[in-house]
Request: fold
Amino acid sequence: MTSIGRRVVLFIAAGIAGAGCHGDGVATDYRRPSSLERGAVACVDPVAADVGGGVLRRGGNAVDAAVATALALAVTWPAAGNLGGGGFLLLHRASGEDVFLDFRETAPAGATETMYLDDAGRIDDHRASDGALAVGVPGSVRGLDEARRRYGTMPWRELVAPACALARDGFIVRRSLARSLANARDRLAAFPDSAAVYLHADGTPPREGDTLRLPSLASTLDTLARDGADAFYRGPLASAIVLATRRAGGCLSETDLDAYAPNWRVPVRGTYRGFHVVGAPLPSSGGTVLLETLNLLEGFDLRTWGRDDARTVHTMVEAMRLAYRDRARWLGDPDRGAAPPFDLTSKRHAEELRRGIRLDRATPSLDIAEGFDVVFEPEESHETTHLTVCDASGNVVSLTTTLNDSFGSAFVAGDTGVLLNNEMSDFDLKPGFTSTRGPIGTPPNRIAPGKRMLSSMAPTLVFGTDGREVVLALGSPGGRTIPNTVIEVIVNVVDFEMTPREAVDHGRFHHQWLPDRIVLEPHYLDEATREQLRGRGHVLRDGDGPQGDVHALARVGGRLVGVADSRIDGATAAP
Ligand code: GLY
Reply:
């Protein structure tokens, strides 16, 4: 046991006993000055990570590096990196302050509650997912610029320049990108401008080792570098994006783009076994689900049972079930009235809910569905991406950004090279209708003009027991699985003393209240444990593949180091 694993023992001891931190001869004191850190970047793509590392090397701070990395990902990881999507940025400042920027997409002014219903009143999944009508008003460009303006140190054009060069000069297609392009081929082929950017003339996707050049995106990035982020929202570029979407049946308008504004929000806060946890507030459900679940778990001695024991998995599933039930019932855009009647992240709420958890049997999700007319959560596809950055001064950024589905709507706007999101499908698509086979229809997350759709993204920071120094910065893609992925990594570190590498690589599972089943990563848990879970009444299903990919920073040897998830060929970089 090394690094954070050992120090976690100390954190827990300090948290429980209220004592100071005592070295054990191997562990590093987490209160060592942050100035020992050189900075680090962790994200899904090595070229983008190097862009962030280069910014740190040139004297930029963590915000500068995060912005440049996110812009580079819009080129090198088009499945999720984006100009045409949105995201959330959580920043711990060296001064001790934690701030949160919401640059989530909004519904266009022309959106209506029933815009994705067909003539028979059924949800038209295709219209909600593919093409121009699925597009929410993008927030990424103004969001990244807003973060830089307030907390960065470098000029915008210098942060855009590396992305511009990558798009113009090209980059080598890696295995993960080749795979994602192959998976998205049919969707991209449906739109001529998308096919022109991301497919060869014969309709085949670029393969591993090919050089991918994106001249139209380079030209757009060049405009943004020269004219500033507002050029995305008003003027010729904005007009071209709107014209392309309207021609293709979308309802985005120039007024929508011009009116888009990111929001600074207060992050949610809590503790888990003495560790301080800071997470995403609404309109993301991420932080709320995370804290509610962790609060519930505090009442159980998971450590004694063991990480992969059926009792541990069962208890974690029961906690997830309750937190996701609350998510479905109460959460949405806080600026449009979504407000739980009490604090879902309070220890008291967890105490009350915990009384209903039985160790010997699963609670059927329908048994905790009071207040719902019907019940179901739609299956979500899982493309989003997370990056973390720290600098030598002690600033730490945890940033999750998304187009929603892989390659978003698959719709590139005309000759701008900008791939647009399909975030509208994160709304509840049919008012009042909920069934075990259909989507949720509760009021807080119904479509309305200008409203932000509920997210699950969970950029998160975990501090030591004195609440001062970041010991873990993390997040993940994965749609509704995101909070559970983050929870499991935190539990691995705090309860089971895993090293950061072990914690990130360990097998994962997901339960989201409805559908009422545990989705396990393939090969996770042996058959005997699975049988014990079935014996308690759980339904088990193997997932189609990995659950998320966590790109984290973890305090090891007195400084934060990057940990990229081995589920995907992610990367870390240092200045
Ligand atoms: N579109 C994924 C999320 O925001 O949770």
